[in-house]
Amino acid sequence: MTHVPDSNVLDMNVVQALRDLGGDDDPNLFAEVVELFLTDTQKNVEKLVAALDARDAPALHRVAHTMKSSSANVGALHLSKLCFEIEKLGRAGTCDGAQSLVEEARRHFEEVSAALTAVRG
């Protein structure tokens, strides 16, 4: 029996739609997308932390924007919302208030990673 992640971690409707995208023609598409997301997002989390440490608001904006979209694409909607909040700060040219959001995004990515790994199959 497949473990169904907490809905705060993954939206299973999005996950199922992504699985259906490959269909019978490309049954490995979902696993490939998940692997790419996990690899890229791990790097982006590190970039977020580095941007925050450097007080680089434009970099914070860019990285959070990328993470927001890719997270939504795999059903990690809460992570996407966190990234949206970080993106707004960076767009406004500030890192003030980003520390707790970046830490929460980092922790939540770990949950998303575990959940996606569990449903990847």
Give a structural overview:
- The protein is mainly alpha-helical and 121 residues long.
- It has one domain: HPT domain (Four Helix Bundle (Hemerythrin (Met), subunit A)).
- Helix content is 75%, strand content 0%.
- The chain is elongated, with a radius of gyration of 15 Å.
The portion of residues assigned to helices is: over 70%
What is the mean pLDDT? 92
The first-to-last residue Cα distance is 11 Å
Which runs of at least 5 residues are low in confidence (pLDDT < 50)? none
Rg estimate, integer Å: 15 Å
Tell me the name of the CATH class. Mainly Alpha
Query: Strand portion, in percent?
Result: under 5%
**Approximate shape:** elongated
CATH architecture: Up-down Bundle
Count of separate structural domains:
1
Structural class: mainly alpha
**Number of helical elements:** 5
Set down the secondary structure blueprint.
Blueprint: H1 12-22, H2 29-53, H3 57-73, H4 77-91, H5 98-120
Helix pairs in contact: 2-3, 2-5, 3-4, 4-5
Summarize the structure.
With 121 residues, the chain is mainly α. It has helices at 12-22, 29-53, 57-73, 77-91, 98-120.
List keywords for this structure.
Four Helix Bundle (Hemerythrin (Met), subunit A), single chain, 121 residues, mainly alpha
